[in-house]
Specification:
Chain lengths: 446, 305
């Protein structure tokens, strides 16, 4: 048997050592880090109405968002929110390219934070390359310190994540005496590990190989989309000297890139639009006394010397749909009645005769008070002449609870021929707010 | 207990299963390399010059696939799946159900335990006990007796003070535990139409309903000869046999002349099913208290007399 000429075709992943740069876009990225992370780490600690302001209580199926309490029945708002998020991605991408990827995506934000920790402990690009080349015994202390810091930060991230679904103050005291429940422990560890792995080890590979949005965002690109561009007309030929273009071929733009590409080769799918190369190049242009913007945000049309068209049909359509859904959701939230009613007719005992020649139907009403104060309610029924509710029409329902109420409805025997008739239950709050819900059902005459 | 009638099908399935898994592993290994280390195209061309590289599978993807193969083999050893092989863990659905049921009973036992020693009369005033009782009632009883317990035609009203089999806590508990069978024999053949009509008019007279007094007088003799064994000489009924009181306004199968004639002519069989196999004694205890409370809460429903 011949020795098969087998060779692995896998590319060995090259380690990327991004170089720190400073500039307006680096500042913007850090601003985005602070803005998103203050919200993420801070929100669970806020208090509202004597409870956690933002808490997704999965066990009791109540979702608190400051003054709002969502129930599973409100899932339509989640749907609307997801549609808004998707359309926003479309719109922002069409106008400004991958700004989400570059500034706000958790993968970018956590990578930014983890790289900062790495820089503080191991130094910038060159120091890190030197450190990695050292024998294990020499680099161990710094590596250990870096991973310890990463793990601590990741653990806090996992803890905060679980703090959104289980009250964070209780979780904190449980953490202190190591008495977190099995699921809490699992999710803290899982989310913490995902943060550590993705932001510490995987980094740009998540964007290049795992993220679906990264791939289909190019479908929203056109020649008027803002992209990060290298002005080849100005830059080429590269090198130092009078006869050369503005690009001095220093390679800073390549070193600064977190995905390890050379932006001078044009737009590539790996480019997450973080603009680190712009900052790096501008620093060099300042030094060599050339105008900034050799690498800059621009559009394909602008580079071709044509006019960039902002208000093109794609942008207008995305904006129109986005505004329409946002308005619909806003109005619907504003008009949302914090009271829900379900009516279930007794099915087996269809209709019965009671004294006085009346026909009676029995209904189970599920009354859900989604507000955070108790309510006094009044029930009424309509739909047939002579139809009346039997028993006490007022009922009380506690704050944010659901309760079952039995309702008996009676009709004079000569009020209708045998058959099924649509009726309507109406539940009105007795407070001054005067909210009301209606629910349809049927009344059966045998 | 095998579902297979002979060993052949068990072996047939086991061989196919194992061969498929091994085949997947071999295919996967083959797809990780290319002879000579050259990436070839798939050999197809689209639109004149579009070809597709036949790259090996991504490594992370291959590893996930290898893990699923290891998982599948481990699963087939531990659990039933390979023909009639029962698995080394001896797991079955039935055993899992039994285990989970036992766990649930253990979980809920303390909840019922604190009520088990209390008297039904006391529980009937205990809101916590009644809340559990109501849930049991809605799940097990409301189908016939309606959600409010006021019943329907053929199914007794539990909210009034009229009881076919007695309304003491003990009697209610026996009704739920053992069930009841109420039997009114058919008198159509034995009595004939006229006598039945007479006795029906007599029966209606007992509770003050409109009746033909001549027929009622004749019917009294018929009643005395045939009905008093169960319904008693005064028509007051007998809880021992579940024979209803005919002198009140409660009519399980309707109090109109036609309805009573149908009852006497054709007889009635009413069954309350036994719940001792469906519910635990502790659950029946709470259910008894809830049913008892329906007629003893003080707030008598408008439906009762």
């Amino acid at each position: 048997m011949n020795a098969p000429q087998h060779a692995s075709l896998y590319e060995v992943q090259a380690q990327i050592y991004p170089r720190a740069v400073s500039g307006v876009y680096a500042w913007l990225r850090w601003a985005a880090v602070w803005a998103t992370q203050l919200v993420y780490y801070g929100f669970p600690w806020l208090t509202w109405n004597d409870r956690q302001a933002v808490l997704f209580d999965i066990v009791h199926r109540k979702f608190y968002l400051f003054g709002l309490v969502f129930w599973p029945q409100d899932v339509v708002y989640l749907t609307a929110l997801l549609i808004l998020a998707a359309l926003s991605l479309f719109l922002f991408t069409a106008v400004a390219g991958r700004v989400w990827c570059g500034y706000a995506c958790p993968q970018t934000v956590y990578t930014e934070i983890f790289m900062w920790i790495e820089r503080v402990i191991e130094g910038d690009r060159n120091a890190r390359i030197r450190l990695d080349a050292m024998p294990p015994s020499k680099k161990f202390p710094r590596k250990a310190a870096k991973h310890a810091a990463w793990i601590a930060f990741a653990a806090w991230t996992g803890f905060t994540f679980v703090g959104y679904v289980t009250p964070i103050r209780e979780l904190w005291s449980e953490m202190l005496d190591l008495s977190t429940g099995p699921w809490e422990t699992f999710w803290i560890a899982f989310y913490g590990f995902a943060t550590y792995g993705n932001a510490g080890w995987m980094r740009e590979q998540v964007c290049k190989y795992m993220c679906p949005y990264a791939r289909f965002q190019s479908a929203m690109f056109d020649k008027d989309t803002l992209i990060i561009t290298y002005d080849a007309k100005r830059g080429e030929p590269r090198g130092k000297g009078e006869a050369k273009g503005d690009c001095v071929d220093c390679g800073i733009c390549v070193q600064a890139c977190p995905t390890g590409i050379d932006i001078r080769n044009g737009l590539q799918y790996e480019c997450i639009g973080c603009a680190a190369c712009i900052d790096g190049c501008n620093q060099v242009m300042d030094k060599v006394k050339r105008p900034r913007g050799l690498i800059r945000y621009s559009t394909t049309h602008a580079l071709e010397g044509r006019k960039t068209d902002l208000l093109r049909p794609r942008v207008l359509i995305y904006s129109a749909i986005l505004l329409a859904i946002a308005a619909a959701m806003g109005v619907s939230l504003y008009l949302r009645v914090p009271l829900k009613l379900d009516v279930i007719r007794d099915r087996a005992a269809i209709a019965r005769e009671v004294e006085g020649g009346l026909i009676e139907n029995v209904y189970r009403l599920q009354v859900m008070n989604t507000a955070e104060q108790a309510r006094a309610l009044e029930l009424s029924v309509s739909g047939l002449p002579g139809l009346q509710l039997w028993g006490e029409p007022t009922l009380g329902v506690g704050a944010a609870t659901s309760s079952m109420v039995l309702a008996k409805v009676r009709l004079p025997a000569d009020g209708a021929k045998p058959g099924s008739y649509p009726i309507e239950f109406r539940l009105r709050s007795l407070g001054r707010e005067g909210i009301e819900v209606r629910e349809r059902s049927v009344f059966v005459v045998q | 207990m095998s579902d297979f009638t002979s060993d052949f099908w068990s072996i047939y399935i086991a061989v196919i299963t194992v061969a498929s898994i091994v085949g997947c592993a071999v295919l996967l290994k083959m797809q990780s390399y290319r002879p000579g280390g050259e990436v070839q195209t798939t050999g197809h061309k689209w639109d004149e010059d579009l070809a597709e590289y036949n790259n090996p599978l991504p490594r992370w993807w291959s590893w996930l696939f290898y893990i699923t193969i290891v998982f599948a083999l481990g699963y087939l050893v531990l659990y039933p799946g390979l023909g009639s092989w029962k698995g080394t863990l001896g797991w079955t659905q039935v055993a899992q159900l039994k285990e989970e049921t036992a766990q649930a009973e253990k979980h809920f036992a303390p909840l019922y335990e604190k009520f088990a020693t209390m008297e039904v009369e006391a529980l009937a005033k205990n809101p916590d006990a009644l809340a559990i009782g109501q849930k049991l009632f809605l799940n097990n009883c409301a189908q016939c007796h309606a959600s409010d317990g006021a019943g329907s035609r053929g199914f007794p009203n539990l909210t009034d003070m009229d009881w076919l089999w007695g309304g003491t806590p003990e009697a209610i508990k026996t009704s739920i535990t053992e069930g009841r069978m109420g039997m009114m024999p058919a008198w159509g053949q034995a009595l004939g139409e006229t006598k039945i009509k007479d006795v029906v008019h007599y029966v209606r007279s007992l509770s003050g309903l409109t009746h033909d007094s001549i027929r009622a007088v004749r019917g009294k003799d018929v009643f005395a000869a045939n009905c008093i064994a169960c319904h008693g000489p005064e028509g007051k009924g007998s809880p021992a046999m579940g024979a209803p009181d005919l002198t009140d306004a409660v009519w399980l199968h309707g109090g109109s002349e036609d309805a009573i004639i149908r009852t006497v002519t054709g007889g009635r069989v009413d069954q309350m099913p036994a719940h001792k196999d469906k519910l635990s004694p502790a659950q029946i205890h709470l259910l008894t208290a809830y049913v008892y409370s329906l007629s003893h809460s003080g707030a008598v429903t408008p439906h009762s007399k």
